[in-house]
Design goal:
This protein has 471 residues and is an alpha/beta fold. Helix 15 links the parallel strand 20 and strand 21. Strands 9-10-8-11-12-13-14-15-16 form a nine-stranded mixed β-sheet, sandwiched between helices. A six-stranded mixed β-sheet has the order 17-18-22-19-20-21, with helices on both faces. The termini are far apart.
Amino acid sequence: MIALSLAEIASVVGGQTYDIPDSAVQVTGPVVRDSREVEPGSLFVAFVGERADGHDYAADVVAAGAAAVLASRPVGVPAIVVDDVQTALGALARHVVERLGATLVALTGSVGKTSSKDLLAQVLRRHAPTVFTPGSLNNEIGLPLTALSATDETRFLVLEMGARGIGHIRYLTGLTPPKIGLVLNVGTAHIGEFGGREQIAQAKGELVEALPADGAAVLNADDPLVRAMASRTKARVILFGEADDADVRAENVRLTENGQPAFTLHTPSGCSDVTLRLYGEHHVSNALAAAAVAHELGMSVDEIALALSEAGTLSRWRMEVTERPDGVTVVNDAYNANPESMRAALRALVAMGKGRRTWAVLGQMAELGDDSLTEHDAVGRLAVRLNVSKLVAVGGREASWLQLGAYNEGSWGEESVHVSDAQAAIDLLRSELRPGDVVLVKASRSVGLERVATALLDDAAVSSEGQVSGR
């Protein structure tokens, strides 16, 4: 964070100082909520959670070098005490971003937020110092913590914004007002909470409504609900996609033999070829989104194309591709799932598995409300249409819908199976995997299917050491 005195922080957040011998002492380290991340000069934010109370760690963090604790009660060590810690954290973030000389870029969407954010960050940081959201810390706590990690040297601040209802993004943009707003798509993620895609579009569009007149709204030309957001902003509109009228678009889209997308990137200042290191054609849209923002921020098309071609995966469990020594390829995409991302992952699996046996180990897609049965059934049917070799549906009722959709689509019989949990899936794969197989693991985060991918890779590691067989 930029250096601020404890007195200044207390003034910004409307707090009272307790047990602070010298209020001129500065916070020079990061602002953290995890006591294990404290460094000398940190500000520790004491949240009260379901399992732990941050106030209980106050003495330990100060002993570890924290300058003070942002707390909701006195804790016997230097502290700034406020009525509401979350509100205070947001106020501090707003104060810091207003003092920064950085350009703030915010992005949202139903699918691909984290992948697009990671791509954009990797492109921009080749151009200038860039701070960006780690992982998916895109809510009312993670977003201000990310903003507070910016320093005086930061030129670009890239913030992912999530929403679970109307007004959420409006609140986040109030904490960190963006100059550039990127909307990727409107899908069915969390549709059970929103009530419909139109309501999701209403929520996502709050981002472009927050942009200033001299800002830029970067919109997906291929998504009608996103394209329509142009009428909701006073900022200049930039379209990206494969549509003919897109300002930044892709032509000659194809997949390499490994299932990695390649295309020609067209921008208003020229064109250049891109071959991504990521897997699946769905990443073309993510790459175009990143390219449109980077072009707006002054990068040349050749710089952008090179940066995209060299960018990798920064966040865990998102199409992580690992090949075992025996030739089995494990695709760990178990961080989260919704109908759009599930379909994209299945298509990527098939593209990667040409001439090889493919396994789709799939679990529940959460928060789909009344559409849950239909959407799970549809994913099971798609697996058949794409000729996935075997579907392993993991879990309870929703998994049974996946398996039933596959069975009804193609009378698959032995080609689809329903197992009770991750361990059952692991046992099945251990007994049936053959060298050269490709295994996709994907479900909503709550299912915990990353255990399957981890077990398969751990097996291979043990086997390669000659201790036990990985089968």
